[in-house]
Design goal:
single chain, alpha/beta, Rossmann fold, 2 domains, 7-stranded parallel β-sheet, 6-stranded parallel β-sheet, elongated
Length: 377
Amino acid sequence: MKIGMVLYPTFGGSGVVGTELGKALAKKGHQVHFITYSQPVRLGSFHENIFYHEVSVSNYPLFDYQPYETELASKLVDVVKHENLDLLHVHYAIPHASAAFMAQQILKTQGINIPFITTLHGTDITLVGRDPSFEPVIRFCINVSNAVTTVSESLKEDTIKHFDIKRPIHVISNFIQIENTDSADAIHELRTKYAKEEQKIVCHISNFRPVKRVEDVILIFSEIQRNLDAKLILVGDGPDRQMAEKLSRKLGLIDQVIFFGKVRDTNHILEFSDLFLLPSETESFGLAALEAMAAGVPVISSNTGGIPEVNIDGYSGYLSDVGDIESMARNAVDLLSNAKKLALFRVQAKERAALFSLDRILPQYEHLYQEVIKKNH
C-alpha cells in the first residue's frame, strides 16, 4: 500500500504515534509518505520506503495568520496525484481531517478517489474540540471520514457523547515498541550518576502543561521524601516548569529534584527509575505510563480517561482519584519501601505493556487500511 501520513511533527503523543506507525509500516514493505510542515522529530535518518513532503508555509503580509489548512490541502492534492497514494491517514482532527476532506473533494473533480482515515488522539476531542468555534468542523470531519479510530475506549465514549456521533468508531490502542534494554551494568552505572545506592528514583515525563498536574508531582514526591530517601527526575518542558522549580525550592527539595528538560530518548532514563508518577487531570490513553511500564517501571497515576485501560490497579501500579495526593503518595511509599513487592510490580508492569506491543497493534491498522481501500474501489 501507498499511505500518506499526516501529523504534527513535534514531541506530542499524536506525532510520535503517527511517526512510529509509519516507520513500522515501511519496515513491512508499505510505502509511507509523511506530509507535514517539518520533518517529524522521531523520524530520524534515512529509512527505506519512507518519503517526506514538506508543506511550505507562506509568509504573505496580507495574512495575520497563515492559512496552513489550505496549504496542507494543496500539498495533499499534489502528493496523492503524483505519488499515486492509496490512502491518507491523518492524526489529530484539527486541521488535518478538514484538510484531507478538502483535498479529497478537489481530487474527485479530477477523477481520483482517495479515502482518508482520521485518528483522534485526545485533546482534539476533550479540549480543543469542545470549543464552540471548532465543534461543527470536528463533528463534520468525523462523520465524513472514511473511517475513524480512537486510541482508547474512553476517548471513543467521549467522542460519541460530546459530538453526538452515530457512525462506527474503531478503537486501536496506542502501542509501544518493546526494545532491547541496556545491560544491567550499564543501567547501574548511569543510575549512580544521579542517585546514591540506597536512594529510590521517581520519574515524571510530560509537556508540563496544567493538565499534567506537575504541582501534584512535586507534592507527592514531598510526601515520599518524608518517608524514605529518594530523587525525583523530571523530563520535559512547558508552561508549568518554572512553577515546579519554584515549588521545589519552597519545599526545600531542589537538591532532590533533577530537571532534565526535553529528552529525545527517554527509555534510558526510565530504565534506571523505580517508579513513575502520572497524576494527570485527564489522559486519552496514557502513553507515558505505557512507556514506563515497558521499561519495567510501575506507575502511580490518576484513574481518569484511558489510563485505567493501561495501568491496572494493584498489578502494574496504583490508581487514585485526580488530585488525591495523599493516596498517591501512600501507594508510592508502599511500593518503594517493599523490595519484594516492587520487584513483582516491575515484572507485572512489563507483562501488561507487552499487550500493547507494536506487533499486536500494527495488524489492526493494516486490516483497517485494506478494508477502507477495498470499499473505495
